[in-house]
Structure formats: structure tokens, C-alpha cells
Design a protein that fits this description.
By secondary structure, the protein is α/β, with parallel strands linked by helices. The protein has one domain. It has eleven helices and seven strands. The protein has helices at 3-17, 48-56, 78-86, 89-92, 94-100, 168-171, 181-189, 202-216, 232-251, 261-271, 277-287; strands spanning 22-23, 34-35, 111-119, 131-138, 146-151, 221-227, 256-260. The strands form two sheets. A five-stranded mixed beta sheet has the order 3-4-5-6-7. Strands 1-2 form a two-stranded antiparallel ribbon. Helix 10 packs antiparallel against helix 11. It is globular and about 55 Å long.
């Protein structure tokens, strides 16, 4: 069983255990892996702010109708798992989840706000700016202004190949690479096609780094890759690709980190269970 099918099987099994009916991507057509309502796929309903932020993103995650399921209704949706993990902490406090992710020390209270689908402009020459799945904003006194988090679930193991980096990111903004030469070499290697990485999507991470760096400077952000681990060779290769990218970022003194959902859930179970029992029981039952 490949990684994508493994994740899908676990999520469909979860829905069956909970008595949640599934439909296809075209309701009556396609693989039955979509909940009939969005709330069936979420730990708690979207808040008005979360819904507005996701609607402002470019992914069209909430666009469903009578003939097509919304993308976020997929039980294997990376957007849904991101909301399930992070929205809960918008009211409970961002510092606890930032600590569990390894982004700050236990008693650090700098993390203040959690937002979804935030955009950071790379250049005014480009019509679109990349969307970062989750952003934790720190207080004004913090040296690290934001933690950017890229969430990946099943798509890292999909048979659909990810694109490389478009040539405009090499030639049109060459000055923005001056202080990150190692990452620039990688950018050239995966432009316009990425034949080196099968599971990690480095072009996406590079665009996030460029956008965050333009807004906050190289030392003003941390970028975290949050991903789902699987058994076998695909999981091993994914981990190797993450390490390879991390080593390159380290040479440029870019603060790049990674953690799997499984590691995160175990940390939260060990450190944050008291007072968060319903939330963590749901997450562990579904994703661990």
C-alpha cells in the first residue's frame, strides 16, 4: 500500500467508525472520500474569521455546490487537518501550540495570533503572492515576528507530480537571492522542472521564504514544515528530502524546521492533555 492509499484508508475508516457518510468529489461520482457537510470533517465549525481567511486564499477550499464537493470536505484534505489542529488554539492561546511545535520555549508567551492562508508578497512584479497555510504572529517585541507553517497531508504521496520553480523567480528578482546563495543554487536546479524531489515541494517552500524574508528580513521569521509520516520507502524518502532541504537552508542561516503530525500529537498528549482532553482525543483517534 502506498502512502496516499494508507492515509486515505485511515481517514475513510475513521469516518466509518464515527458513522459519517461519505460521497464522491462529484457527489454521486468519484471515490467516496468527502463528507456531506464541512462540519462532519472538522473538530469544530469554522469561526467567522477562519472562514473569511480561507475564502480569501487562492485554493478555493470552500467552493462546493450540489454537484461538486468542496475540497475541504475531503477526509484527506491538508486544509482540513490544518484547521483541525490550529483553529482550536486561536482562543486557547497560540503559545501552547507554538511550544508543542518546537518553535519556542515552554514559558515563552510571545505567540499571540493564529491566522490561515496569509499572503506575503515576493515582488510587485508578480500578480499573485503564495499562501502560507498557517501563520502564528508574535508580539512586537519579539525578534521573530512570525512563524510560517506549511501543512502537508496526503498530497506529499500523490501520484500527481508537483511543479518546479518558474523562471521568473530566478531572473526577475535576482537581487532577493543575494543573502541566500545556497537556496538560490537549489532554485536553479529545480527551475523550471523539479526532477530531484518526489515528496517534498521545495519550490513552494522557496516562495514562502522569499515572501517572509521580504516582509520581515532573513532573521525575522521561522518556517515550519508540518507533514504526515507514512510507513515504508515513501516515508523514508520524504524524511530524507526534508533533511536535504533543511541542510541547504541551514547553510544560508534560514530558520527552517520540520515536524510530523504524529510527533506533534504525541508531544501535545504528553505536555498539554490536561484541559484539552476532547480536542486531543479527537486528534489522536483520527490522525495518530
Amino acid at each position: 500500500m502506498n502512502g496516499f492509499d494508507y492515509i486515505l484508508f485511515k481517514q475513510v475508516s475513521w469516518a466509518s467508525r464515527k458513522g459519517i457518510s461519505l460521497v464522491g468529489s462529484q457527489i454521486s461520482k468519484g471515490r467516496q472520500a468527502y463528507t456531506k457537510t464541512l462540519n462532519d470533517n472538522l473538530f469544530e465549525p469554522l469561526s467567522l474569521q477562519t472562514k473569511a481567511e480561507i475564502n480569501d486564499g487562492d485554493g478555493g477550499e470552500l467552493k462546493g455546490n450540489t454537484t461538486h464537493s468542496a475540497k475541504m470536505c475531503a477526509v484527506h484534505s491538508s486544509s482540513a487537518i490544518g484547521v483541525n489542529i490550529f483553529q482550536y488554539w486561536k482562543n486557547k492561546g497560540a503559545s501552547d501550540i507554538a511550544y508543542a511545535l518546537g518553535l519556542c520555549r515552554k514559558n515563552n508567551k510571545s505567540a499571540k495570533e493564529i491566522h490561515f492562508e496569509q499572503k506575503f508578497q515576493i515582488s510587485n512584479q508578480f500578480r499573485l503572492s503564495p499562501n502560507i497555510d498557517v501563520v502564528i504572529k508574535n508580539n512586537d517585541k519579539s525578534n521573530i515576528k512570525v512563524f510560517g507553517i506549511e501543512c502537508k497531508f496526503s498530497e506529499a504521496y500523490s501520484s500527481r507530480k508537483h511543479p518546479g520553480l518558474k523562471k521568473k523567480y530566478i531572473f526577475d528578482i535576482s537581487e532577493q537571492w543575494n543573502d541566500i546563495p545556497a537556496l538560490f543554487e537549489l532554485a536553479k536546479e529545480i527551475s523550471p522542472n523539479d526532477a530531484e524531489y518526489d515528496h517534498l515541494h521545495p519550490a513552494q517552500l522557496l516562495k514562502h521564504i522569499l515572501g517572509l524574508k521580504k516582509t520581515y528580513g532573513k532573521s525575522g521569521f521561522r518556517l515550519l514544515y508540518l507533514w504526515y509520516d507514512v510507513l515504508g520507502n515513501e516515508g523514508y524518502q520524504h524524511r530524507q528530502e526534508i533533511k536535504q532541504f533543511s541542510d541547504i537552508a541551514k547553510r544560508d542561516n534560514v530558520k527552517f524546521h520540520s515536524i510530523s503530525y504524529q510527533e506533534l500529537l504525541m508531544r501535545m498528549r504528553n505536555k498539554l492533555y490536561a484541559g484539552n482532553e476532547d480536542y486531543l482525543n479527537y486528534m489522536i483517534d483520527r490522525y495518530l
